[in-house]
Amino acid sequence: MEVTRTNFPQLLPKIKEAISKCDFIVIDCELTGLNTINNINAFDTQKQYYEKVRRNSKDFLIIQYGLCMFRYDKEKEMYKQQGYNFYIFQNSPNKYVPDHRFLCQSSSIDFLATSGFDFNKLFREGISFLNSSEEEKYRESLSEAQKMRTNKMLQNTYTPDRSGQSINQSMTVEEKDLVNKIFKEIHDFIASDEEEHVLPKCNAYIRRLVYQQAEVTLLNKANLETRTLENKERIFVVTRIRTQDEKEAANREAIKKEEEELQQSIGFSTVIKAIVESGKLLVGHNMCLDLLHTINQFLIPLPFEYEEFKEIAHYSFPKILDTKYMSSTAPLKNLIDSTVVAHLLSTIQREPFKIPTIEIEENAEGYNLEHSKQHEAGYDAYITGLSFLAMWNYLDSLEEKPKKNCFPNFSLLEPYLNRLFLMRLQDYPYINLGGADVVPSRDHIVYLSFPKSWKQNDIFQLFSPFGNIFVAWINDHSAFVALQRRDQISIVLSTLSQSETYTIMSYSQRQAQLAADIITTPSPCQRKRAANNINSSIKKRKTSVGEVTVEKDFKMASRPITEKSKETPAKKRLQNTFEESVDWE
């Protein structure tokens, strides 16, 4: 079901109820850009991977969010589902909402446009959002404004602001004429029977001058206020002086309206908070980017530190399952030729897989395979849910006593829980959100620095005496080289180390070198963070569900040197030896 700013308030209670009653939730996101694939190196660590993705994707936005809730009906022995497709775009009803600036990647926008994405609907009817930091600032600013308004309401007379006298002296003739015209209309209004009057259009500077002069000349003869209309046009209004009871009633009404505007601004973040509070299993396909953007955009800004990100992610979503990782791991990977979501859907519709019976919830809307809406976030979430159930059912069929339906045998999912699939990494297949990451040996890898004129064949020729290799380009003058014959590493380092044309070192030496460079040459951003946090020994970060406390002494957050990958095709035989062909779906 399509959800926009117009119908979101009416649907929100129903969506929250579906979240609370379902057995698992499937998500999918459409973004304004990716911009990470060219920076990922095949031999990055999980920490380096996170830092690159965070840095390169933080300026893009989720603009469509798919949500599909699945519930197992024990009486009918079938699944029920309902799906929603949210258009997400932050509108600014008032000055408390940040005026977001974001990036678009042309290839991503072209892909969405080709897939029929409705950008007019996005910009006109997109649902707003605030993360916890933005919401906190909004509430603080609003509270301060309400206190000032209440204090002014309780005053019987104005306190003149003399600062306007010097400003008046710098006004142009046209500005003075406009101010005089406004005051003439104010005095005419006071002499009339009108309850309120809209004053001539003027900018914020003129309004300020009028406010300052009014405090001196009007005293308690009239009220001035600036209103924002539904079309976001601002008007300047003069009204009658109210009684104290009328002022208090108007203040209560203003507070009520301001709270409504706050909730409207929080918008879709309310849905994500409901998912967090539910603690339900969260399913997605290749969901690393989706998860990072979900946290950053709707919950809390992504931290610089990798371990802190893992804490926040696991605290917010304690049970995550990435079907990209699930389908890429034995025993399922032996049955699946391609893990692209559309290809995976085709695979699970054939033996030995079987999609269980699934119906749309009563009095709800959902998706079905007869009406394909590929690349619509809600539909992609739905087919991800189908793939998950089909693979889960297959795992159950391998048990000694398979059941008619895999639900609720969650023990079968344990090997796949809280593991985010990582694209293009050779031997770090996932981020383990629930514990320590896998650290495979990279003793067979060397770092090679060479002239910019070198090509792939130059590297192959250099290493030809030592067997097959895999080259992971960093930039046009360096690369990581992995040996197929691991026992040759000592010979390689000793044989190739005496050259003035190139330099070679072990993988561990290169990582130590990078770490030393980070410590000795902090970026300007790091120095700023250090200055802001030098007195903090225990750092608490508020989230939508509480506080994540990182109990450690302050240290400068690390940032790796950017090493962009060079897109150079390897020989097919070497790809088959070292790499599975994968993409971002």
TrEMBL record:
InterPro entries recorded: CAF1_poly(A)_ribonucleases (IPR051181), Nucleotide-bd_a/b_plait_sf (IPR012677), PARN_R3H (IPR034042), PolyA-riboNase_RNA-binding (IPR014789), R3H_dom_sf (IPR036867), RBD_domain_sf (IPR035979), RNase_CAF1 (IPR006941), RNaseH-like_sf (IPR012337)
A GO cellular component annotation in the UniProt record: nucleus
Chain spans, region Disordered: 559-585
GO BP annotation list: nuclear-transcribed mRNA poly(A) tail shortening; priRNA 3'-end processing; siRNA 3'-end processing
Domain Poly(A)-specific ribonuclease RNA-binding intervals: 435-512
Molecular function in Gene Ontology: metal ion binding; poly(A)-specific ribonuclease activity; RNA binding
Composition-biased stretches (Basic and acidic residues): 559-570
Family per similarity comment: Belongs to the CAF1 family.
Name under which the protein is recorded: Poly(A)-specific ribonuclease RNA-binding domain-containing protein
Organism: Pyrocoelia pectoralis
Biological classification of the source: Eukaryota, Metazoa, Ecdysozoa, Arthropoda, Hexapoda
